[in-house]
Specification:
Blueprint: E1 4-14, E2 20-31, E3 36-41, H1 47-55, E4 62-67, E5 70-71, E6 79-82, H2 94-104, H3 109-122, H4 138-150, E7 156-160, H5 168-185, E8 188-192, H6 196-202, E9 205-212, E10 217-226, H7 238-252
Parallel strand pairs: 3-8, 3-9, 6-7, 7-8
Antiparallel strand pairs: 1-2, 1-4, 4-5, 9-10
The chain binds adenosine-5'-triphosphate.
Keywords: ATP-binding, Nucleotide-binding, Transport
Protein name: ABC transporter ATP-binding protein
Organism: Cryobacterium glaciale
Length: 258
C-alpha cells in the first residue's frame, strides 16, 4: 500500500508543428494508502497523462509526484498498470503470464508458480491456468491481466479504462470482482474511466477533470467528489443517481458538442 501526493503538476507536449500543447496545469491530488480513487472527465482532459506520469512512463513538465513518499523517476513493478488492451504474452500460458513478473524479479520458479496459482484463484481463473490468452474471452484475459499485476504485490494499482473493451455484463461482473479484490488486498487504486457510473460504483472518491487542449484551457481538476454510499452499491438508488447527476453536470459544462 502506498499513498499518492501530486502537487502543482503540469504537462506540456511539443506538437509536430513546433507549438507547445499544454495538456494539464496545476493538478494537485492526495490519495491515502488503501483508498480507491476514480478519475473521470471528457476526452482530452488529461486523465491518461496523469496516470502515465504516476506510472513513470512520462515525466511531468512541472510539479512533484510522490508515491509512498518517494519521487516517481520511472516505471516500477511496485506500481502495477492495467490498460484497456490486456497486454498478455500470447506465447505464454495463463499460469506463465502471471508468474512472469515474479520470475523477472528473481522469485524462484516454485514460489512464482505458487504466486501465480494464488492470484489466478483470486480472479476466479484457476481452471484455465494452462490455456493460452488466445483461448480466453476478453473478460477472462482482463482478469489474467489483473492477476498478473497483483502477483507483483504492487503498492499502487493504476488502471486506465481497463473494462472499456468489455460487454456490459462482463464489465459489471469485473467491477464487482475488483471491489472484492480491493477489499481483500487494500491496495491503493487510481482508476481512469469514461463512465461516471463505473467511477461511482467503484470509488471512495471521484476526481472530475475538465478542460484539455481541444477546449482552449489546459486540463485541470474541477472537483473531487466523495462517494458516501454503502459498500454494496445500488446503481438504481436515488443517492447513487444524485451523485451521478452532480458529476455529469461538471463533466459536461464547458464541453462544446458539434
Ligand atoms: N504524445 C503527445 N503529444 C502531444 N500531445 C499529446 C500527447 N499525449 C497526449 N497529448 C495531448 O494531451 C491532452 C491530454 O491527453 P490524455 O490522453 O491524457 O487525455 P484523456 O483525458 O486521457 O483522453 P481520453 O479520454 O480521450 O483518453 C490531449 O489534448 C492530447 O491531445
Amino acid at each position: 500500500m502506498a499513498d499518492i501526493s501530486v502537487a502543482g503538476l503540469a504537462k506540456h507536449y511539443d506538437a509536430t508543428d513546433g507549438s507547445t500543447v499544454i495538456a494539464m496545469t496545476d493538478v494537485s491530488l492526495t490519495v491515502a494508502s488503501g483508498e480507491f480513487v476514480a478519475v473521470v472527465g471528457a476526452s482530452g482532459c488529461g486523465k491518461s497523462t496523469l496516470l502515465r506520469i504516476l506510472a513513470g512512463f512520462e515525466r511531468a513538465s512541472a510539479g512533484t509526484v510522490l508515491v509512498g513518499g518517494v519521487a516517481v523517476a520511472g516505471p516500477s513493478s511496485d506500481r502495477g498498470v492495467v490498460f484497456q488492451d490486456y497486454g498478455l504474452f500470447p506465447w505464454l500460458t495463463t499460469r506463465e503470464n502471471v508468474a512472469f513478473g515474479p520470475r523477472q524479479r528473481g522469485v524462484d520458479r516454485k514460489a512464482a508458480a505458487a504466486l501465480s496459482e494464488r492470484f489466478l484463484h483470486t480472479v476466479g481463473l484457476a481452471m484455465v491456468a494452462d490455456k493460452y490468452p488466445g483461448e480466453l474471452s476478453g473478460g477472462m484475459q482482463q482478469r489474467v491481466a489483473i492477476a498478473r499485476v497483483l502477483a507483483n504485490n504492487p503498492a499502487l494499482l493504476l488502471m486506465d479504462e481497463p473494462f472499456g473493451a468489455l460487454d456490459a455484463l462482463t464489465r459489471s461482473d469485473l467491477q464487482i470482482e475488483l471491489r472484492r479484490i480491493h477489499r481483500q488486498t487494500q491496495t491503493t487504486v487510481l482508476f481512469v474511466t469514461h463512465s461516471i457510473e463505473e467511477a461511482i460504483f467503484l470509488a471512495d472518491r471521484v476526481v472530475v477533470m475538465t478542460g484539455g487542449a481541444a477546449h482552449g484551457v489546459p486540463g485541470h481538476i474541477r472537483a473531487i467528489v466523495p462517494v458516501h454510499l454503502p459498500a454494496e452499491r445500488d446503481v438504481n438508488s436515488h443517492e447513487f443517481n444524485e451523485i451521478k447527476r452532480e458529476i455529469s453536470a461538471m463533466v459536461h459544462e464547458g464541453v462544446d458538442y458539434v
